[in-house]
């Protein structure tokens, strides 16, 4: 059988950096082929070469047995290669069918077009209403629109970039049904992801890249998740485990917290209650945009709450600002790194001062002791293996993973009794993710409490022993994981769509 | 083709070189303008009068600092606000109001000779400048009204208020109906620090203030607060800073300093309150602040540079019959080239031949 796409000795350099170094592999017809690798491993470069937006320096490709050198993405689409990007390009104010017709050349919006949308929608289980306005759709539904738009071009290869990073577990299951059907019908799929469990479920072939080089072509189902991760990062992972879960008395509670959002597009929070014990890791799962940002602002103290709705060590703290809360040993790591947790144009040493409890001795009556700041910054850099040339490097010059390590380190070095963290490993490579998870676990093992707000369900399931779900601004009670826990979480996350 | 590419790190060389490049470009442009407008006069002579003469004569030299002192004081306050992204454009208004209030104290106690008089006038100047700026702060904090508009508009109000005062309560009763106040008596006048010139104690105060400001900005959390509020407002909240307080602090500081400068001008070179008090120092101080890259010690130098354009500008007006706008053209070009050249700190210029199409 002929290969769908043959990639032979592709090399692409940016200056001295070889983003792709002599990479060869084949995509078989009707297969779902995973492309795995950490950030910077060369996945995007390779995909851009295949999709025609970059020219390789060396090497060649064969498409359905014939030589293939796309000059631009338009060329690639003509030949039957389509791509669904991680960030969608849809107009929110237009309907589904209008959006689809806009992405195509030489077609008009008429009845037969709408019928075709409905045909694809039925054939592949892509539940969509062509007349609905995109702005009203969930993220999962928007992705379905993007997929249908690609299918209208009758592709023979569909490239999907991190398709599940924004989906609920149920939506992921549905997507996999669609993808399997597409593959059966002869459309090969190149599936880019760092979620190894999913890759093992759906892909029969995998190409693993590391530092621009090909590490291995294999069947991911023959390897464990850990083996795949270790191939990706090129070293052994630390096994994550809590050494002793000994929870003590309650340390922090949220009591019937409600708040109308000031923002027109914000989410109102309804009657949120939660209790955290010393030494425990509590997780709040949920799809983004269900009130996570609003809740985090209240927890940090950026927005004032009624005094008694937040209680820490027996004290009402709702009205305290973040600096006052830190004096009580509450620390925070927000989701957004640049512009929220760190000031992009300031050095790491100056960024240390965002979180400056009295005990850190970085300031004394507001006067900055730069010696101490420097020492503490250096300690964070050393202890948490932040890769940076100096403590004065601007925050924006660090990679996402490195800056996250710095921000986690900045708070952990103060030995928080309570750490509240949103998306601790968002956009962080597997090695750093492993390190960050490990340091959170050891913090809890020492008796501190941790609250994690994350969209990454795997992360919550790995770390937390008490899990809540945030949906449309309401927080569920703790989910009993013994009794079909995953299914319950999934249903709670989808809460809005069931109503 | 020419393209600007972001540098990985700010260029240290360019931080020093860019003001020099800007000065050279300003001089070249000034040269072109002089060649175009001058007849029968050597351009080199005009350049000499403009840039060199003020340093050769002790009177002109002292005048440099007479003019630089108010620019320093106002520029300091503005640079603190601009760091926080609070744009007090109407320091001129706060300067005028400060001058009026301070003079009112001097006029009220016109027959009292006492050591406390001058400090009291200074306090009146500062407080009234603060009050005038607080209108903008209040409107901004309470109703999200843009402080640029409020401060700018209020500066025109202040100038008319000055006319009203000089034709009303503050007018000299024995002044033949001229719109001027009484002459201040000796204990209401700023001490002269250089005998035989108009150079007064205000310069010393300005220098002391800039070192205090330097300490506040570099060594105190207040400096971090305004810096963070200016470049990343969400991070400022994360750090526990109240953004309303930042607005209040910065407007009160810049307003108070402008008010002090206004009083110094009335009790210094003028010796009375006159309609000539609004001298555009409040607007020119914006240029001073930016030329100093908002650095409090830099303000010491940039204010002298701008003062040079005043003193030299006046001299060429007299000697060569050139229009008054020469000074403003010079200041405008200086700021323009300075800001333009600062691009080179963060970007490098490359020449290239082909553009590769990317997605």
Characterization of the model:
- In chain A, strand 7, helix 6 and strand 8 form a beta-alpha-beta unit.
- In chain A, the strands form 5 sheets. In chain A, strands 6-7-8-3-9-10 form a 6-stranded mixed sheet.
- Chain A has 2 domains: 229 residues, Rossmann fold (3-Layer(aba) Sandwich); 249 residues, P-loop containing nucleotide triphosphate hydrolases (Rossmann fold, 3-Layer(aba) Sandwich).
- Chain A is an alpha/beta fold and 499 residues long.
- With 359 residues, chain B is an all-alpha fold.
- Chain B has a single domain, classed as ABC transporter involved in vitamin B12 uptake, BtuC (Orthogonal Bundle), CATH 1.10.3470.
- Chain B contains 13 helices and 2 strands, in the order βαααααααααααααβ.
- Chain B starts with a strand and ends in an 8-residue tail after the last strand.
- The chains are: A alpha/beta (499), B mainly alpha (359).
- The interface between A and B is medium-sized, with 39 and 23 residues.
Oligomer: heterodimer
CATH topology of chain B: ABC transporter involved in vitamin B12 uptake, BtuC
General form of chain A: globular
Indicate the mean pLDDT of chain B.
91
Please give the domain count of chain B. 1
- List unreliable stretches of 5+ residues of chain B: 355-359
- Largest interface in this structure: A-B, 39 and 23 residues
The amount of beta strand of chain A, in percent, is 15-25%
The radius of gyration of chain B is 22 Å
The CATH architecture term of chain B is Orthogonal Bundle
Structural class of chain B: mainly alpha
């Amino acid at each position: 059988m002929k290969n769908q796409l043959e990639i032979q000795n592709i090399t692409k350099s940016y200056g001295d950096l070889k983003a792709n170094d002599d990479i060869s592999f084949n995509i078989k017809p009707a297969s779902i082929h995973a492309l795995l690798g950490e950030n910077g491993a060369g996945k995007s470069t390779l995909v851009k070469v295949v999709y025609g937006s970059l020219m390789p320096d060396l090497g060649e490709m064969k498409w359905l047995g014939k030589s293939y050198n796309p000059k631009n993405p338009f060329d690639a689409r003509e030949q039957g290669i389509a791509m669904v990007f991680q960030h969608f390009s849809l107009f929110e104010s237009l309907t589904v069918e209008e959006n689809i017709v806009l992405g195509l050349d030489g077609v008009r919006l008429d009845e037969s077009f709408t019928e075709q949308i409905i045909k694809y929608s039925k054939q592949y289980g892509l539940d969509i209403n062509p007349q609905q306005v995109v702005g009203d759709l969930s993220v999962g539904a928007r992705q379905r629109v993007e997929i249908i738009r690609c299918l209208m071009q009758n592709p023979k290869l569909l490239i999907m970039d991190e398709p599940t990073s924004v989906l609920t577990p149920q939506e992921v299951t549905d997507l996999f049904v669609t993808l399997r059907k597409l593959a059966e019908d002869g459309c090969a799929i190149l599936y880019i992801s760092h979620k190894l469990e999913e890759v093992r479920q759906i892909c029969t072939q995998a190409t693993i890249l590391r530092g621009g080089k090909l590490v291995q072509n294999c069947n991911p189902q023959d390897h464990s998740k850990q083996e795949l991760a270790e191939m990706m990062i090129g070293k052994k992972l630390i096994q994550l485990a809590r050494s002793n879960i000994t929870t003590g008395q309650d340390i922090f509670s949220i009591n019937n917290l409600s708040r109308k959002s000031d923002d027109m597009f914000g989410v109102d929070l309804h009657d949120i209650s939660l209790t955290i014990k010393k030494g425990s890791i509590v997780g709040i799962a949920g799809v983004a945009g269900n009130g996570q940002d609003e809740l985090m602002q209240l927890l940090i103290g950026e927005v004032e709450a009624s005094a008694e709705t937040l209680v820490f060590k027996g004290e009402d703290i709702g009205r305290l600002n973040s600096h006052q809360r830190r004096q009580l040993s509450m620390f925070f790591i927000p989701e957004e790194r640049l512009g929220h947790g760190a000031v992009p144009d300031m050095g790491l040493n100056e960024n240390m001062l965002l979180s400056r409890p009295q005990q850190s001795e970085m300031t004394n009556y507001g006067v900055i002791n730069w010696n101490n700041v420097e020492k503490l910054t250096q300690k964070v850099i050393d202890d948490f293996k932040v890769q940076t040339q100096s403590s004065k490097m601007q925050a924006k010059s660090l990679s996402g993973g490195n800056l996250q390590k710095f921000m986690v380190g900045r708070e952990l070095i103060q030995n928080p009794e309570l750490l509240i963290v949103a998306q601790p490993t968002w956009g962080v490579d597997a090695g750093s993710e492993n390190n960050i998870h490990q340091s959170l676990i050891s913090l809890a093992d020492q008796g501190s409490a941790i609250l994690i707000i994350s969209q990454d369900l795997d992360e919550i399931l790995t770390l937390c022993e008490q899990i809540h779900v945030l949906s449309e601004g309401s927080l569920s009670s703790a989910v009993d994981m013994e009794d079909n826990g995953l299914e319950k979480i999934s249903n709670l996350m989808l809460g809005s769509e069931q109503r | 083709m020419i393209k600007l590419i972001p540098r990985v790190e700010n260029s240290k060389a360019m931080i020093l070189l860019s003001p020099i490049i800007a000065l050279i470009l300003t001089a070249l442009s000034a040269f072109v303008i002089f060649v175009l407008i001058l007849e029968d006069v050597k351009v080199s002579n005009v350049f000499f009068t403009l840039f060199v003469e003020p340093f050769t004569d002790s009177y002109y030299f002292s005048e440099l600092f007479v003019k630089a002192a108010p620019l320093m004081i106002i520029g300091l306050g503005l640079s603190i606000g601009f760091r926080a992204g609070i744009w007090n454009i109407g320091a001129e208004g706060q300067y005028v109001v400060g001058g009026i209030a301070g003079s009112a104290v001097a006029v009220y106690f016109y027959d009292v000779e006492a050591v406390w008089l001058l400090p009291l006038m200074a306090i009146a100047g500062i407080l009234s400048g603060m009050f005038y700026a607080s209108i903008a702060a209040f409107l901004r904090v309470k109703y999200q009204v843009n402080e640029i508009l409020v401060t700018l508009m209020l500066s025109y109000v202040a100038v008319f208020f000055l006319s009203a005062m000089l034709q009303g309560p503050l007018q000299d009763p024995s002044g033949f109906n001229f719109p001027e106040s009484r002459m201040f008596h000796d204990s209401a006048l700023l001490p002269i620090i250089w005998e035989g010139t108009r150079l007064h104690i205000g310069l010393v105060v300005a220098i002391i203030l800039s070192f205090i400001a330097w300490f506040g900005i570099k060594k105190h959390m207040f400096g971090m607060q305004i810096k963070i509020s200016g470049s990343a407002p969400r991070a400022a909240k994360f750090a526990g800073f109240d953004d309303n307080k930042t607005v209040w602090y910065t407007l009160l500081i810049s307003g108070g300093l402008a008010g002090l400068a206004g009083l110094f001008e009335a009790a210094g070179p003028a010796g009375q309150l006159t309609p000539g008090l609004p001298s555009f120092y409040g607007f020119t101080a914006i240029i001073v602040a930016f030329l100093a890259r908002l650095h409090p010690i830099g303000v010491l130098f940039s204010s002298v540079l701008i003062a040079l354009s005043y003193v030299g500008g006046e001299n060429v007006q007299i000697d060569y019959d050139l229009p008054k706008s020469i000074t403003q053209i010079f200041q405008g070009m200086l700021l323009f080239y300075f800001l333009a050249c600062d691009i080179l700190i963060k970007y490098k210029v490359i020449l290239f031949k082909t553009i590769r199409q990317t997605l």
